[in-house]
Amino acid sequence: MQHRIVVLGAGYAGAIAAGRLARRLHRDEVAITLVNAEPDFVERVRMHQVATGQSLKPRPLRKLGVDLKVATVAAVDVDRRVVTTTAGDELTYDTLVYALGSRSADDRPEHAYELASRPGALRLRDRLAGLDRNGTVVVVGGGLTGIEAATEIAEARPDLRVGLVARDSLGDWLSPKGRAHVRRVCDGLGITVHEHTAVTAVEADRVVTADGTVIPAAVTVWTTGFAVHPVAAATALEVTDTGRIVVDGTMRSVSHPEVYAVGDAAFAMGPGERPLRMSCASGTPMAWQAADAIAARLTGGTLPHAPLRYFNQCVSLGRRDGLIQYVTADDRAKPAVLTGRVAAVYKELVCKGAAWGVEHPMLGLPTRRRRLTPDHADQYTSGRSSR
After folding, report:
1. What is the per-residue pLDDT across 149-176, written as a single tens digit (0 to 9) for each?
2. Number of domains observed in the structure of the chain
3. Which spans of this chain does the record mark as coiled coil (predicted)?
4. Which of 130, 175, 262, 286 has the fewest other C-beta atoms within 10 Å?
């Protein structure tokens, strides 16, 4: 009987994990099913580009060499090891890779648009396309997504009046040089920045701040944060108070050894015992780690112990400018930055490299498929205390 591996979600982490497993294991011994709501891989880091009318290259998930099931996950029963879709289909697994990722935070107001998904980006694209000259756009949220969205919109549509609302200082996690560059770019693009400002209400044509200030907004873009998919919190898996699955260094659930979690859905510790942040930079190495650990446990190989660390943060500031903020292994800003056109090219190469990595999960290395050991199922039948 084939060992059944089900991967939920085909973002960067899920798609890479599925593709890497397909190249680590023999398909006559392992059945790998990838469950995703869309048939194509979505470059989530480019959704601000989609919102401004740019087209992205289609990337069909069927090219990954796994069985693709286009469906939405409704529930996971970790005791029965069954995944249920919204259509009522049931998938039984021996090993589960949970990579459902995150979505726009649950606090998004009714009249605000989101950029955490392709449907959201497409709705925003259509709305922006209908704005007349001097139309007002307010981006709420001063993090990476907010800064990238505001600068992309302002550059693509110089006829619009774009504002950016940040609860704290603009780019407060960046180095002084990084913060100064982001401010210069925003000023050059005519973006009105509202710092140390909290939005308390979003209406159809305005936002209202905590001090009662009214900011005109024909379009409001909500980028205040992300929340993980709620499926995991409804299971018996050990999760954090925000619903992220707690995993060990191999991305294996600390409560259910047949379950692995990668990407935004996983709570994993990085250097300095600091949790890895939700990002593509975290999800990709987590996927490598999980896939290689699963393959090692099933084939009697050596478990991977690659360190999960950071090198830089890449920020798009439109198509012609950017910021590369160099960071420590535990993601704290260093003084050094790269800016301008060179940084924009650097970020573009990073985005292309991430998409290429989904289609080439072994990073161009030779494919070495290994056979399962006769006792590969022992890790699941020897008790939940196995880590």
Report:
1. 999 999 999 999 999 999 999 999 999 9
2. 2
3. none
4. 130
What contacts 24, CB < 8 A, 6 or more positions away? 291, 292, 294, 295, 299, 368, 369, 370
Q: What is the pLDDT of residues 72-110, one digit of tens each?
A: 999 999 999 999 999 999 999 999 999 999 988 778 899
Residue 246, domain extent: 3-101+229-309+356-381
Instruction: Extract the tokens encoding 303.
Output: 């478990």
Nearest-5° angle of CA 147, CA 148, CA 153? 100
203 in the same domain as 126: yes
Residue 133 CB-half CA count within 13 A: 1
Structure tokens at 203: 């209406």
The gap from C-alpha 39 to its chain's centroid, in whole angstroms, comes to 17
Is 289 part of any domain?
yes
Q: How confident is the model at residue 376 (pLDDT cuts 50, 70, 90)?
A: confident
Residue given tokens 């573009």 in the structure block = 348
Q: Among 206, 222, 238, which residue terminates a domain? A: 222
Structure tokens at 357: 């990595």
One-letter identity of residue 298? L
Is 218 found in the same domain as 233?
no
Q: Which of 190, 222, 254 is the last residue of a domain?
A: 222
Q: Is residue 330 part of a domain?
A: no
Whole-angstrom Cα distance, residue 69 to residue 198?
Answer: 42
Q: How many residues does the chain have?
A: 387
